Every structure is written in C-alpha cells, then in structure tokens.
C-alpha cells in the first residue's frame, strides 16, 4: 500500500497539470463585480417610500352624525380609513379610503367624486367605481349602519 502511495505522489509532483496558467482575479475585478451586483439589486427595488397606512378601525366605531355628510358629497374619516358618501338624500355608502392604484389615501370628496390626488384617480359616490385616472379597481365597500342620526362603522 505504501508503494502505491509513493507512485501516486510521485506522479502528482512530477507531472504538473498542462494548460494555460490561471491568474487569480485582481481586487479591482472583484470590487467592480460587487458594485455591479449591488447596482442591479438596487435597480429592482420599488421606487420611493411606501405609504404609511394607519391600522384599520376596530368593529362598531361611531364615525359621526349623518348631518356631517352632505347630499351629493361625502366625508373622509382618515383614522378609520373609510369615506362615507350620501349620493342622494338619506342614502349613505361607505368605502375604503385607500386608492386602489398605489395605496395613497384619498384626499377629497368634491364635484360628485371621491378623489385621490396622488395620480388623479376618481371614484363614484354611489358605488366606488372608477370614474377616471389609473386606478385598476373600485374602492372596496365598507359596512356601516345608520341609526338615530349617527353613522357607525360595523
């Protein structure tokens, strides 16, 4: 067995590998490759900071009196992430106040629509459907109850 070990070691020492010599990469090459990799990863990240969204309201939260919701308009309740509209006298609707385009909070209820100022999306007072802008989906409906002149998020 010792004889075979000697033959193998002799062969390895006396017969080096044939072919071109391979140089180790330089420090500059490694740093350039690392910088290019980091730039590629950074290019794949989402642009800008995500919108901070407050926690959803707990169930059965009193939003306010019906008198605060104008006919043909509405009111945004930012802490609860809900917008309540009154498209016609005595009919109240509620929707999420978060735009379906890029999750910005809607900014106003004016001129018969719910409006997001981030990119110009507009939604209908009656059903939250998209009326204009880049929003891909309607605003999701929220459940409310109206009793004794008060609106409650359920």
- The CATH class of the domain at 61-153 is identified as Mainly Beta
**In terms of structural class, how would the helical and strand content be classed?**
alpha+beta
Task: Give the number of helices.
Answer: 2
Order of helices and strands: HHEEEEEEEEEE
Kindly report the CATH topology of the domain at 61-153: Rieske Iron-sulfur Protein
- Percentage of residues in helical conformation: 10-25%
The 3D shape can be described as elongated
Backbone CA Rg: 33 Å
Q: Which second-level CATH architecture of the domain at 61-153 applies?
A: 3-layer Sandwich
By oligomeric state, this entry counts as single chain
Largest sheet descriptor: 4 strands, antiparallel
Q: Proportion of β residues?
A: 25-35%
Uncertain runs are none
Arithmetic mean of pLDDT? 84
CATH superfamily of the domain at 61-153: Rieske [2Fe-2S] iron-sulphur domain
Number of E strands: 10
Describe the protein in words.
The chain is α+β, with helices and mostly antiparallel strands and 154 residues long. It has a domain at 61-153: Rieske [2Fe-2S] iron-sulphur domain (Rieske Iron-sulfur Protein), CATH 2.102.10. It has helices at 2-14, 27-43, and strands spanning 61-65, 73-77, 82-88, 91-96, 108-110, 113-115, 122-124, 130-132, 144-147, 150-153. The strands form 3 sheets. It has a 4-stranded antiparallel sheet, with no helix packed on it. Strand 9 (144-147) and strand 10 form a beta hairpin. The N and C termini lie far apart (85 Å). The mean pLDDT is 84. One of its GO terms (cellular component) is membrane. Keywords: 2Fe-2S, Disulfide bond, Iron, Iron-sulfur, Metal-binding. Residues 144-154 have a biased composition (Polar residues).
């Amino acid at each position: 067995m010792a004889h075979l070990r000697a033959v193998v070691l002799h062969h390895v020492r006396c017969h080096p590998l044939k072919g071109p010599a391979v140089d180790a990469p330089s420090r500059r090459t490694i740093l350039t490759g690392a910088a290019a990799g980091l730039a590629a990863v950074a290019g794949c990240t989402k642009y800008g900071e995500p919108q901070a969204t407050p926690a959803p309201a707990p169930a059965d939260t009193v939003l306010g009196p019906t008198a605060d919701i104008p006919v043909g308009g509405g009111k945004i309740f930012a802490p609860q992430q809900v917008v309540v509209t009154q498209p016609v006298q005595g009919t109240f609707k509620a929707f999420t106040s978060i735009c379906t385009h890029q999750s910005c909070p809607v900014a106003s209820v004016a001129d018969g629509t719910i409006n997001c100022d981030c990119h110009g999306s507009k939604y209908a007072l009656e059903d939250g459907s998209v009326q204009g802008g880049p929003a891909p989906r309607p605003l999701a409906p929220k459940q409310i109850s109206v009793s004794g002149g008060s609106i409650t998020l359920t």
